């Protein structure tokens, strides 16, 4: 689970895609060299797909970015991104539509290891935050407009990646303020995800400590947390003393409910635990479809991760959870 691995994939995917287009274009350059006709006219006489590859190859071989404008809108972005990456000139990114422009600028910032490119984005703090994670350097946050956000995100991921709870205690703010950065972490703790989605005012440091207690199997970390984490933390403590454990899959719903009652935990909290237990023992998508609401979505996301099969994500109807499911393949290994 490393944010930097997901960010590095942006560079790999970008470079890989451009290389494929270059390979396709080379064949058409060979054709052009054998013809006395104008290279551009020769390209334009081809079918649209071949035409784009031909023009892209011509633009690259002649180092002429103006040819990019002759390429169809579907392929044109990769032509400008090629020249942006080759020259380091961010101007080429500005020819692109909003989403592609941001991708181009961000890819350029990573590829050229130049944080100043982030200033050309609408959200430079997010760009700088991601770069601080990529290069494992919190001092980069000093360049962010919102330094507190950047440093909190860095400490959050550093704490969980290195299983160092000290950094959890250094966090401030609420989980809602960091929703763009925390949603992937709930794959480590679906219980924390359920609580955070229903209450955005939960402290970020408590969320970090609770997730840490789960990934380290240390219930003592979360016993002094406030609601709602202390409720399920007490449940985990009961498990530790009675050999009840969700992870070993030795319980059924009735046993969990009994453990909740013994711990004087509200039934509402136990209901979440029971559903999460059912998620933990699910083996097929049919098991997930028997659950209701967000639990069905979480179950499918869990199965996708369990079987390393991203196609399962597309069976999730809820867009938010579908994206959450897909992002686990993007950011985590």
What's the quick description here?
This protein is mostly helical. The protein starts with a helix and ends with a helix.
Question: Could you characterize what this model shows?
Answer:
With 333 residues, the chain is an all-alpha fold. The chain is built from 16 helices and no strands.
What structural class do the secondary elements suggest? Answer: mainly alpha
N-to-C SSE string, H for helix and E for strand? HHHHHHHHHHHHHHHH
Main β-sheet, in a few words? Answer: none
Helical fraction:
55-70%
Total helical segments: 16
Note the gap between the termini: 6 Å
Compute the number of strand runs. Answer: 0
Portion of residues in beta strands equals under 5%
- Overall radius of gyration: 25 Å
Number of domains: 2
Low-confidence stretches are 235-251
- Overall mean pLDDT stands at 76
Q: What is the 3D shape?
A: flat
Key phrases:
mainly alpha; single chain
What layout of secondary structure does this protein have?
Layout: H1 3-33, H2 39-44, H3 48-61, H4 76-87, H5 98-111, H6 124-134, H7 147-162, H8 179-182, H9 190-198, H10 204-215, H11 229-242, H12 253-262, H13 267-281, H14 285-289, H15 293-306, H16 319-331
Helix pairs in contact: 1-3, 1-6, 3-4, 4-5, 6-7, 12-13, 13-15, 15-16
